[in-house]
User: Fold these one by one.
Assistant:
Number 1:
Amino acid sequence: MNPIMIAPVVVGRDRAQFAIRRLQSVKWRSVALFLSALVPFWLLVDVMAPQTLYAIALLGLLLLVYLGWSYYVVERAPRFRAVFGTRGLAVAVTCYIGLIIWLGWLRPSLLALVHLGAVVLIFVYYWFIAFIAFFHDQVGRSKYAPKPPYPQLTVLIPAYNEEGYVSRTIQSLLDADYPEDALEIVAVDDGSTDSTFAEASAFAAASERVSVVSKANGGKYSALNYGLLFASGAIIVTVDADSIVDPDALKHIVAPFAADEDIGAVASNVTIWNRDSLVTRCQQLEYTIGVNIYRRALDYFGIVMVVPGCLGAYRREVLSEVFAYDPDTLTEDFDVTMKVLRAGYRVSVSDARVYTEAPATWHDLYRQRLRWYRGNYMTIIKHWSVVTDSSYGYLNRIALPFRLVEMFFLPFASFVVLAYIAWLIAAGHVLTVFAVFVFFTSIVFLIAALGIQIEGEDWRLLVYAPLLVVGYKQFHDALNVKCLLDVLTAPELGWTRAARIEQVVSGRPDVGVIPEPEAGETIGAETETKTKNETNPGTDPDAHNHGGD
């Protein structure tokens, strides 16, 4: 047969086989879940007034232009980076509000403005953030597949009063599927007053890969900086002393470094292991849709804003370049990630999974988030220049605007909406309130389902989706408002954390709990350090920073 006649047949067959393989690789359940949101959004659009739809469409067009321009400027034409940046967006949104009020599309009231903003944000979150996370799940995982040779790795475990926990953390690292000659583990006892040092030292005596150093209590940031003095690995991994890593987590968390030299830090996926209460299950659902999904979206641009302290990785030279950890905030992981991003490096997310203990009571959750949210506001204020400096690319144009809306607009808007709902109920508009609740709950439900599908989580968590609309959400909104006021009015804020479950069960509820500082105390005061495997009898049990949470 004529080869010229055969060639088109072969090419057509190869293309068909390629198309079949692509179709087989599609995760169709994720596709179905994502597209199912068209139903509630269509119902919402169907009941909206035409003027409101015009206002939403105009703002959506404005944001689309901004995002498209941002992509062009960052990727193609950095010489125009100062044109239509975050300042320009703020001016454009202000002009937009004036225009829609003048056109009669929006009533000139705070409530109407908050309502419009809430609806727009749910559109943006689903069709931008969730879409990118969905796309990331479809095509992005394979680009960071682990493969040898694996780099020299040093794992730092800062620990303050982690008796009963640090041994499990070290054991999980020793059991990890990673070349033994490329892994060293350094546990840093940050002046513990319990048996943390002895517990960790037992592993040092049994394994050459483990070493233990001790210092006077000075805070988690100082424990990490001290541990760096004993680290020899090219990649530095930090693991909290109450966390357990998956056997393949270390291989996954170093994979992005080999794939892209511009990556300076890598985040992990955080999973809660103690899911035996309403509080911990709500937290896991929050992690699934509010943390892990959000990180996957930002990973597409290389601007993951927080490398979690429970499992994160950094290039050694990058940490040295940004002078490692600072005492300026209560969230050293957020702060150092911002420093890495500001230095021009990409921060990515991996498939490495870590299991951590979550606060089991509302009081303990309050204490944990008190530190987190205060630290978040401290970190944003510390790095405020990034908000107005267009040279920071996607960090300035995408990540921080979303983060500012999340931190400064949503908590206050939540209570405006609650007040309006209370008024509607009092006025007898119960069906209207129910319809709004059903819409937002359905969207959160679908986002949660998509997150559970992507992360391989427990589908029973969907039962708690309504609490992320009413109840659990307001708890965090109120705490965010309190923490913002705390940061603005009280310059010296201490470290707070939740009590450890097993330490409470064992009859030692005071272990690991750090008292509030007295007036005038500062965050993480510098203290004297000790040499390797040397205990420190003169530690301060009332120091307010620690190394394990």
Note: Strands lie at 153-159, 183-190, 210-215, 235-238, 243-245, 263-272, 312-315, 346-356, 529-532.
Number 2:
Amino acid sequence: MDLNKYSNSILPYIPFFYVIWSDDLLSASEIEVVKTAIKEDDSLNNEDKKQLGAWLDKSNPPQNEEIKQWQQLITNSGVTLIESEAFPLEAFARKVANFYCNSCSSNELLKQIELNLGIQPNHYNHLFNVEVIQQPFSDFYNGAEIDAILNKPFLKKINTFRTFLKQDTFNWNIETNKEKAREKVLSQVKLLAANGWGALAYPKAYGGEDNMECYASIFEHLMFIDGSLAIKFGVQFGLFGGSIHNLGSKRHHDQYLKATGETNLLGCFAMTETGHGSNVRGIKTTATYIHNEKALVIHTPGKNDNKEYIGNALDSKMASVFAQLIVNGKNRGVHAILVPLRNDKHEVLEGITVKDNGYKLGLNGVDNGKIWFNQVKVPVANLLDKYGRIDSDGNYESEIKNPNKRFFTMLGTLVGGRICVAKGALAGSKMALTVAIKHALQRRQFNDSLKVQEDLLLDYPTHQLRLIPKVATSYVYHVVLQKAMKEYAQNTSNDKRKIETQVAGLKACITWFATETIQECREACGGKGYLLENRIGDLKNDTDIFTTFEGDNTVLLQLAAKGVLSDFKSELNAGGFVSVLKLLRDRFSDKLATINPAYSNKTDKDHLYNPKFHLHAMDYRLRRLTDTAAMRIRGYIKKGVPSYQAFLKVQTHLLEVGKAYSEVLSIKWYYEFITDLPEGKYKNLLLQVGALHSLSIIRKDAVWYLEQGYLSSTKSKAIRQRVERLSTELRPHAHALVEGFGIPEHLVTAPIAN
């Protein structure tokens, strides 16, 4: 073999060209990628560039004899191909070249070729007659370091909790009997309480640490053990205890909060009714004040007015009951009242009926039940009266005079529960993705008949595309929910409308994402995913209800959309005519910018991976949807259609507004988080993750963008290709990414993940 025909600078390119021509990878756009790299490579002289350029001519490809010489050159080097390298082909090519000239350093331009052509080891390792080390994943990134970045504020506390969970009582096992499941879950909740974990969000005076953010992370970790445990924990300490903490006064705190945190007082949160579901304002249970007895009479007036699906109903001694407060014959709206349910012998008290909801699709370790009240008297002191009270003369008083504002203020204090539900759903996604990814890094299936060994599932582009974008989205939502809980916990004002709007949309989008993701993971694991022992079945069943409780998702998206429209209206009203003119001018200039062919056809990597493009694209969609929804509603009202009916006519449009709002908020908060990170490889990794999530969202809404002229068909196609390529780029790091979820190893009990 005549090596003198190849210069030292050309040698590192030879493995690339061998792969290119052996697998016929080159399309017109790919040729341009390689040509650009060659043009920018200062290590090549003009003769080298001319030679490499000639090898890119598809009309006059290299002769078979030339390609055989390339193969012989590679084989004679005796170099080992290590699939888990960050850039395996570039590293392999460099080692081949160094065998002959010992002067080749890392070449960033070759890395760009490998990256932009999406060349994976499983595409070419069979072509080389060399030893192949098939490590299933790269160790370039460390999962523990990613976990530390994501959970930095409370990492020490979280790690302490992870160690605490190593006790045998938290071991996961298959339990299909609800009574036994409930018994186990209750004992786990009591153990958590005895060690101070339940009271974390309460003030220090009542055994807590005033740390709602850390409490939410603890809740998330309990989902890794058992969904029933997380929900039972959330009902006892978050909903029941949270209602006392957030809606009660100091005397309620002194009397009940410490006992609640220690589970000496078990309670439930009785808001939802059979007949009124999401319509809390329309609930029918009444609490009528009797002045001469200083008592409230709690009553279920009709057949479908009972409290429904109440967690902890069978174990509770007391309920936080939401009812219409009637004072002096006037309805003062929905308030919460503490109502004892059972005596010290755990016997149900007179006037109260509790029935078990029975077996459910999931969460059978939670004792959900129905509750009826028949003229049940409780002291007026049991009214949780932070926002509305009855004075000594029997008159109702409140600092919040507007009943609508008072109602939403009361509900706004309970937004933390909605964030926890979203975190729980996301935890289910993380666990399912961890199982599915780890399975795909072990399970082999099919080959090209040239190899004895079959390919790993995760080496198939289709498998990468079904799982890795969902890993990316899980990262985005993790950051977003951390931010949401911080905003909620640190908001000391009574007005929580903004965070309520934000969380309403996020809860809907994230719980729907969880349902979709867990199903995808189940299918990605084949029949193994259907076995209970591998956890995905329980995750699927347990989280399915998350799309419904703490607010039905369809209702919540409308709530988010109405919040967006209220802000839109306030902005216009504040600015008057000038604001309208500005809106029209901005809308017109935005439209011109996006239909500019230079923008709508721009497909280079730097543009498509740029956070500014992602933010602009999603924000443009939100603004257009908000604008057109407002104009449609205004048009109907101008025609005499009542405002309620006008909203109904654009209901599906409003859902898109709510979804778009949540998508913008998510990516905005995520990129803000990344901006504050120190420069380095982990920041770069998380930028890649953000790009994959963002492009996946834009791709999902491609029809709308195409209709608006925001994207050309060429750009839409390029985005689809980039989603595929990013999934491939992140494939070597999939193991590190799921390790970065921070799920303790002892809780990943699925056999297929070990």
Note: The first strand starts at residue 81 and ends at 82.
Number 3:
Amino acid sequence: MRLLKHALAGAVLAATTALTAPAVAQDKLSLVVNVVQIFGTVDPAKITDYTEYMAAVNLYDGLTTVSSGGEVVPQLAESWEVSDDNQTYTFKLKQDATFQDGSPVEAKDVVYTLQRLLSLNEGPAYLFSDLVDPENVKALDDHTVEIRINRVYAPFISITPLILVVNSDVMKEQDGEWGEDYLTENSAGAGPYKLNGWTRGAEMIMQRYEDYHAGWARQRPIDELRFVVTRDEATVRALAQRGELGLSSQYQSTETYKAIEALDNYKLIEASTATGFYLKVNNQIAPTDDVHIRRAIAYALDYATIREVIYPGGEMKSVLSSLFSEAHLDELPSPEYSLEKAAEEVAKSKYAGDKPIKLDHAYVANTAFEEEIGLLFKSTLETIGFEVDLQPEPWNRITELATKVETTPNTAQVFYGPTYPSPDSVLFVQYHSRAAGTWSSMSWVEDPEIDAMIDKSRATVDEAARNAIYKDIQARLHENVAEIPLLTQLKRMAAHSCLQGYAEVPMQSWDYDFSRMWWACEG
């Protein structure tokens, strides 16, 4: 399968502050990594957002993983076979993989992991819940797992990295049927790092698992990860000025990036991604239930200022990044900023004559570039008869509002990138009615025709035919202005010049697998 060259997942933010120890301790290499959003959970059956996946990809390994080129490649499974009817997947596990307590990874652990995920029905379970019945996950022997799916689902292999395997023996010793309390504070995985300390809202510490099955072949592996939670950019700059910062978050201001890059021993990492920055537009509540109002908003956005001045990024014509080259609808026009056309669309709407037309607009609080975009949005829309109520909210509040159509704002600024390396991750997760009620689906598209096309794409094994359906979906979403893509994210991070090996990966936060990175300096 040919996939995109580069990608990302992403998502938006939240906040607090902390200081921590230097980047390099005398007896081990300890890397300080800045994040701006709190870790809500590290339970692999419950993770949902960018930061939680950043933790999970280091604590756990999946059946498969994803390369920087976009290919699904072996991880705990060394190979797999697919039946002629495309419904039975048989995975052969590596013989030498162990959990962080030294016990072997076996087929029973994969069975337990999937059955736990399906039973808890949280986090990534929505991808498997109507596709896999618990009794259809079987251990054929200690190192062979069979998964029988209920129907043909063409992208199935692309979601197998999310089967993050937990140690069933450890879990069965815990209280409760699925050991939920234990995984609130501990890790039980076969990943490169294990959880060693967690001050919620401030810092998370992970220690390297020296016997990690994939090995540590690079010059000097990172022995300890110290994730410091702070949105305060002065704190991030101070960490760099003292030489303590290993890697910044991707959500700093341009001024902060420039200031850190100018320091000795620091560099700026830049990478094109498949993450989109969207204006989510609630299709189900007034006044954004009217396509003409949605189209007016689209015309009233100053795209060039947003992506060239406020938050540098690439042009985005479709809801799907052009990095999914074979599935992208290239024929769509570039986004157009025209207040004249915006006013014409308002006049065509059922709300024409209502003065003012009231909108509420949400964005992540205490995030400078999002506030700037919100202010630009308000000032522009109010010149054509709207009254915009800006609602800066903590990220966890936005996710709460998104669970119900009536509490979801008219418009909201949201980053979304593929959580698995397939266009299906962008289209199903954001626009299918079965996926409604999350921050990623805040547009509440609820379109039976879109649902039917997405369902058809998922059952289409032929890649060319499936890509044609993806293009039809993009065309309808564009015509209905289901939501408004603002830009593709150009990911930027400030990093210590000694940190090497970072590569973009087309899966949410999989590029933060620190077993793929190393320290290239002495001391």
Note: The first strand starts at residue 30 and ends at 35.
Number 4:
Amino acid sequence: MGLQPVEEVVGTDTRYQWQYPLAGQPGTRSTIRSVWYFALPLTSAHRGGHSGGGALIDGVEGQERYANEGTVYPHAGLVEMITYQQKYLPELDWRYLDLSHLPWQEVRAAIHENPPDVAALTVYTSTALWAFIVAAEIKRANPAAVVVFGNDHAGILHREVLTGHYGRRLVDFVSTGNNGPFTMLGLLHALRGQLAWERVPSLAYLRDGRVVNQPAPTWPLDRRMLPDYQLIEDQLEQYYDRAFDVWYAEHYALKRMVTLPLDGGCTWGRRPGRRCKHCSIQGLTPKTAEVDTVVPVLETVVGELGANVYAAGDSTLGFSRDQWSGASSYLDDLAERCAASPVLNGHRFMLAYGLVFEFLQSAELCKGFVRTWNVGLEAFDPKLLKGDSKGINKGPDRVFEALELAQQLDYKLYISGILGLPGTTLAMLRAEVDNWLSLAETYRDSVTTISVAAPGVIPGSRMYWESFQSHPEVRASHGEIIPARRLTELYVRENTEVTLADVEAAIAEVGRGVIALGRQRGHMKFGGYMLGGVDEQEAAEQRQLDEICARL
């Protein structure tokens, strides 16, 4: 990972260790006894909000269920790492903590009572501040603890994190690719003296004051184990099921949700001229898990855990034989196997992402096992879609054709969009709001969530890279913690005829309408995405981090 978007490579690199258990490598004495895995809350602009992101909207009644009940989805990447650790290093204790559910004071007390020897934290731009707070508290309780940061923000900014004001004191290693379980497993073996550091894939660290990065290709999805959620079933029952009940119980026969990384990237990537902007920005390459591996896991998840499955890929509904020259039959094979499974047949349990075009091609094929279509409409005006679309939606007519088909086939809808895309005028912004409210009213019996956001300028996006190249202000703000709201304000000001304040007022108007409609009928929820950087709670958290660091 790096700041500039590059194309992802999938494959193996023999310089690194991929196979476990290690042949001929006996266990060694080690001070490592416990590994803790932290899923982090969003910044304080989200606190008091809900699992879809976004703060409460002032002056709107009926937001009682929008109290911060925590996220619905366990963190798949962390559970995947735990699954590998449990299989190959069962003698090491592990603990999984999701701070969207657990009060900070409770977590802090647990850290000081019996601090971890190794702590792995997943870090997005919106969670970076809390990642440093947790890391600082761990280092305060156990100065010898090894702290590992991973995920998009930390991986892209590994150099800035490892050498930053906070990171150089708090972070020992950064995972820099899509190889989380192999990076973590290799790191644990290296810490135990069983593996040379140079053999650990996708790892960055400081050596003699110099940043060392060991980039590696993405280990193929069809050769990986999927996360085992039976390992955290107690937390599903205690925390996640309650959040699911608040938001989605009315929409699903099964009453919980887990996430499985069944695919990644999208088939648009095979034709760069038609590549969806999201995967183009991220450099993601089309890849899928092995159906023979997936189906038994789905049977366990659905049949034993009683859970729905969020297929957290970038374009799941694009992997069918009827699309893109027939290069992939993944969905066809999955549909056939689900229909033949006595456990899966008769259940519509999957939440899957797909562009409008992809849904129109795959809706009939997937109607036996996909319950919810997660679609990034982004915008209704094709002028706004032209430069920054996640796909070629071809304007509102094509969108409503797909929505009508979804309603006919009894799909549920999770719909997201962006207000304030380049080229937006006040008239366009008004029209986009009207279209979102009209969509919400027309399809409210089918919609689980409408999530509308401003175009957040964060590392990993092309707009961040382009802004970094062209604006001294962006370069001056660049570092281990990014002022995303201020940079988004600059981006909107320079690329539209509106302001970020206009955009946020429009988002609030959509939110008010969705909340009111959801109260009347349909159980529809609203999810905005606040950028942080504006409230006193976030300032207090910054002071909290500085105070902890001062006591190290």
Note: Residues 32-221 form a domain with the Rossmann fold fold (CATH 3.40.50).
